[in-house]
Amino acid sequence: MEKKTERLIYLDNAATSFPKPEAVYRRIDEVLRVISGNPGRASHRMALEASRVIFSAREAIARLFNVRDASRIAFTKNATEGINIALKGLLKPGGHVVTSSFEHNSVVKTLGRLERNGVRVTKVRPDKDGLLDPKDIASAIDKDTKIVCISHASNVFGTVQPIEEIGRLCRNKSVIFMVDGAQTAGAMPIEMDAMNMDIFAATGHKALFGPQGTGFLYVREGIEPEPLVDGGTGELNITLEMPDRLESGTMNTPGVGGLGAGVEFILKEGIAKVKRYEEALIEALLDGLRKTEGVRIIGPADAKKRTALVAFNIAGKTPAEVGMRLDNDFSIMVRTGAHCAPEAHREAGTHPDGAVRVSPGYFTKEDEVEEFLRAIREIAK
Ligand SMILES: Cc1ncc(COP(=O)(O)O)c(C=O)c1O
User: Fold this and answer.
1) Distance from Cα 35 to the centre of ligand 1, integer Å
2) Do 259 and 185 share a structural domain?
3) Domain end position, chosen among 238, 269, 300
4) Does residue 359's CB lie within 6 angstroms of at least one atom of ligand 1?
5) CA of 169 to the centre of ligand 1 (A)
6) Cα–Cα distance measured from residue 220 to residue 369, given in angstroms and rounded to the nearest whole number
7) Which of 4, 60, 161, 304 is 20 to 30 A from 290 in CA distance terms?
8) Residue 347, C-beta contacts closer than 8 angstroms, at least 6 positions apart
9) pLDDT band at 339 (very low <50, low <70, confident <90, very high)
10) CA proximity to 21, closest of 332, 266, 334
11) Least-confidence region, from 25-39, 91-105, 239-253, 295-309
């Protein structure tokens, strides 16, 4: 990073978003420098101000995702933590969970550990574009099924799943529907109740523009996962209400403040506008990649069916080689390899090398996409 004047093109927003809106940097700085009290731990004004930071971030998330009762949103340190809380806090030995065969390791490894402890896991396979058929999920549900857990969009295929339909069938069968929204929160309009979701785990540092170390878990009223971590404020009762129940210990107030500022930025811009802009970039990427000889794209050909990422390979080149050339020769940042999702790459036929994944964000310029496509044509020659 010594060449500060060099123009870097950041196309790895599916890993973590960069840059963040100015307001995010400012809020984090303000919380650390000025506010700085411990939220919920004292009644002096700095502590109360810190509580207000947490409160307003929670309210902003509730507005963006149309959640009526903001107390059903607990802050976590990332999507992985939220996924662990929900799965480990609800599944007991003898219970059954239905998931897909293309999940991120956050789900795969968590369920793997639960499986060793007597939870039964059924994995439903998608079509060649990474799309699940709700009928397959319906037939995988049996009398012991407690949860259906799938990602809203895989971080390898990018395919947006038919969430509402899957949620509806789960409701009809009285099964909890849990969604891993790491790749969609902040990237497309999402409404928890209208989309029939009971649990939604999101990460703060991707499309929601928060800093790393932030995320949240939404849990519908009536579902109370056992906490992974105990402690916190108050008396000696261990049956705390949401959100305190899942937020033991001092909060990441600067991080949550930054996340709140990111969400407020999206609310101001409008999530439909964000989606439209990123979709146009994905369309340009798909078009350019399709026209490049030797490129094989993973996932659907239609940008409307995707979240803001495209994974692909170039014939005769390893993903690592392509990523290295993009970085070294063109100053373009993408993610290569297995993307913490080896099962998804198995489904895509790209295991073990993985793929190259390009993921623009709301701050990506059209000419940066063009430059990326020029670089890919050069590398593919
Ligand atoms: C689909 C999916 N689930 C879960 C995660 C985990 O997110 P985090 O590392 O922020 O916990 C990711 C991150 O890449 C993801 O893409």
Assistant:
1) 30
2) yes
3) 269
4) no
5) 25
6) 39
7) 161
8) 101, 102, 125, 126, 130, 157
9) confident
10) 266
11) 239-253
